Amino acid sequence: MRKDKSNYCKRVPPIVMARPPGPREARPEDKPDPTTQPPHVSAANESYVRLGGPRARAMTILIWLHLALAIAYPAYAGEAKPQRVMSLNLCADQLVLMLVAPSRIASVSFLSRASEKPLLTAEAAGVRVNYGTLEEVLAQKPDLVIAGIASTPTTREFLKRGAIPLVEVPVATNFDEIRKTTRLVGRAVGEEAKADALIRELDATLAELQSARLSRRIIVADWGGGGEVSGKGTLFDAILTAAGGVNLADSMRDQKFGSFDFEQLLALNPDIIAFGDGSTEKPGLRHEQIQHRIVQSVYRNRQITYPESLYACGLPQSAEAAKALRRAMLEIVQGSGR
Fold it and tell me: Sheet harboring 246-247: ordered strands across?
């Protein structure tokens, strides 16, 4: 039986090609509900919130640390004298150990251990040491933290955002700055009278040195090996000037630190070469140059080794360092007949 093709074609539905939807007018039902829509996250910030991403973990840690600070220190009571002082900086350590009773010191930095040869040691005071970490701050719960302006930047940044009082002590490179930093720490720890007493001792020592000037110029080079010398604006220069000496490096223009090589030192021929005790105790380039046979021959009896602990930090005792330096200079000059 033959099919009627015309009827068959009529029964087959036509094939319709789908077309992409074109633009249409916005309808009220198309408006998003702000109560159900998630917050917009840009592609640039997506990694911050991606579950399990490194930035997400870092942000979680930061949040928990802030919460820990807020819980541990809901409000600073403002004691007349802080009872748990924590120092994170060597120079601040020394002032804290001078001014605060050990029972009120939570800890000082590890640089104040006896092995580092500071002026005052943590062991002698019987106090703990820290390594400047935020975890130690949370564990020790100080009511005052004292730090330098350059060390432990991460810890300092968190403390500024938290509830723990923070005092940042600038580096002291002359006697005016020593007075300021001593008063700063004295006020912070509630020991202004002790700080003033230390400053009076400093001023009395400087006045004594000023009243008995040297009769001749004594030129000194702070030549600690490796060619490095301390120029104007350094604590060494301030101590040497108070002692009555002349810094060989004063010829350097606007430079705190410069260098004189071996040949320059011999050509300039200062009366005395000085170097810190750390330069001679550990093997290295500095030690080798200081022990060079020519240096030892020319300056055998014209060397001064000074305690680096008194020249690294500007302290009230820096005036005593100047007094000791003058005594050593006079002994050398009188002994050598220069």
Answer: 246-247, 219-222, 272-276, 303-306
Q: 118 in helix, strand or coil?
A: coil
Supply 227's token pair: 């060619």
Instruction: Give the DSSP letter string of 27-83.
Output: -GGGS--TTTSPPP--TTTHHHHSTT-HHHHHHHHHHHHHHHHHHH-SS----SS-S
Please give the tally of structural domains in the chain.
2
Q: Is the dihedral of CA 196, 201, 204, 209 positive or negative?
A: negative
Does residue 285 register a pLDDT over 60?
Answer: no
pLDDT at 6: 47
112/126 Cα distance (integer angstroms): 12
d(CA 282, CA 264): 25
| 196 within some domain | no
In this structure, what are the phi and psi dihedrals at residue 332, rounded to the nearest 5 degrees?
A: -70, -45
**Tokens 């036509």 label which residue?**
14
Amino acid in position 143: D
Q: Is residue 176 part of a domain?
A: no
| Residue 327: HSE in the Cβ half-sphere, 13 Å Cα cutoff | 8
Verify that 231 and 313 share a domain, yes or no. Answer: yes
> Which sign, positive or negative, has the C-alpha torsion 308, 309, 312, 318?
negative
Place of tokens 């009896």: 301
Full domain range(s) for residue 275: 219-336
Segment (H or E) for 275: strand 272-276
Q: What is the DSSP string of 178-225?
A: HHHHHHHHHHHHT-HHHHHHHHHHHHHHHHHHHHS--SS--EEEE--S
Q: 175-189 and 318-336 are packed helices; what angle lies between their axes, rounded to 10 degrees?
A: 150
Closest CA to 325 of 225, 266, 247, 268: 247
CATH number of the domain where residue 106 is located? 3.40.50.1980
Residue range 109-164, pLDDT digits in tens: 999 999 888 999 999 999 999 999 999 999 999 999 999 998 899 899 989 888 78
pTM, two decimals, is 0.74
| 261 part of a folded domain | yes
